Amino acid sequence: MERISMKKYFFPLLAVLFLACNGPEQEPITLIFDTDMGNDIDDAIALAIMNNYIDGGKTRVIGIGLSKEGSAPAAYVDIVQTWYGHAGIPIGVVRNSVGPVKDCYAENVWCQKDKEGNPLFSHSLSDDDYSKLPDAHILYRKLLADEPDNSVTFVMVGFSTNLARLLETGPDEYSSLEGQKLVAQKVKRLVCMAGNFRKETSEYNVHCDIPAARKVLEEWPTEIVVSPYEVGSATPFPAQNVVRFGGGKPNPVAEGYKAYRKMPYDRSGWDPSAMICGVEGNKFFTLSPPGHICVDSVGVTIFTPDPDNGKAYYLIVNNAQATALSDHMVELATYK
Ligand SMILES: [Ca+2]
Q: Which of 47, 67, 259, 293 would you call most buried, defined as having the most Cβ atoms within 10 angstroms of its Cβ?
């Protein structure tokens, strides 16, 4: 009798202790990554981190959208995803956009050759496919329609073009809902790198498409968490870690980093901060009170607290948080 009662209580107790120590297994975050890949190298670091999260079972990425126009950004994403073993995630592109056209590293890496003159990095899509990829905002409608309600996280680290267009879409073959309603129904939250709440200045991602940023930051119907300029500036990626990418093999993120600027340089962790918040939540940050964000005519972002109806927040880091976040970013990005 004594042994039976031991069994009866011992194993449930073990289970409780296990959960108390390790926490319940977190369901993978369903993620769509929207990026202006090819402008600044922090997008590529964020992409490496995203692949770490996929490998660790922390996220299920259902789509990648590009807010920078041209074939090179899509080709670069395809190369990186192939290198990390996660090709096949649907990619959407932007057309007729207003963002900058100059490519800063994507084409360089795409065109690199090995000693025999063959492409240094494999890709999964053929060159012709890049021009045939769907518009990102239409791809997003298709992806959202297939997901459960209140389940999708967007991480947006470039211009707001694709997400603004998504909000403006009408009913189509994928959903009878207009964009605003589809987003309200399917999206859990949007985490974006945008704005500056320390200085009255027009941050790059906002400045490059002010009407789109206004549409998204002011009218997005779910929770929004903004990782502003000052957070990324406080969390640099130290240049000496670039050699850690690839474990001795050529790696497209490291090659992008080297092509972007004359080495060595430390680049701010703007986009990685948003990616980390999107998947791991707010634990590395202090969160503002809830409120509203508005974007003025020259692209300055203004936050107004509203404890009752506010759905927008922005991230803040102190020196200790910034150091911890920077270290975490390096470990996540250079895992392979
Ligand atoms: Ca970016």
A: 67
272 CA distance to ligand 1 middle (Å): 9
Backbone angles phi, psi at 99, to 5 degrees: -75, 175
Cα–ligand 1 centroid distance for 277 (angstroms):
15
Q: If you measure from the C-alpha of residue 304 to the centroid of ligand 1, how many angstroms do you get, rounded to a whole number?
A: 25
CATH number for 48: 3.90.245.10
170 alpha carbon – ligand 1 mean position (Å): 28
The reply to whether 9 falls in a domain is no
In a domain, 10, yes or no: no
pLDDT, mean of residues 219-240:
97
Task: Note if the pTM is more than 0.85.
Answer: yes
Provide the domain limits for residue 266: 28-333
**Structural domains in the chain (count):** 1
**From the CA of 35, how far away is ligand 1's center (Å)?**
6
In a domain, 178, yes or no: yes
Q: Is residue 101 very low, low, confident or very high in pLDDT (cuts 50, 70, 90)?
A: confident
How many angstroms separate the alpha carbon of residue 16 from the centre of ligand 1?
Answer: 43
Chain mean pLDDT for the chain: 93
pLDDT tens, position by position, 150-174? 999 999 999 999 999 999 999 999 9
Has residue 298 got a pLDDT over 50?
Answer: yes
pLDDT at res. 266:
96
Q: Are strands 291-295 and 301-305 parallel, antiparallel or unpaired?
A: antiparallel
Is position 1 within any domain?
no
Whole-number Å distance, alpha carbon 45 to ligand 1 midpoint, is 10
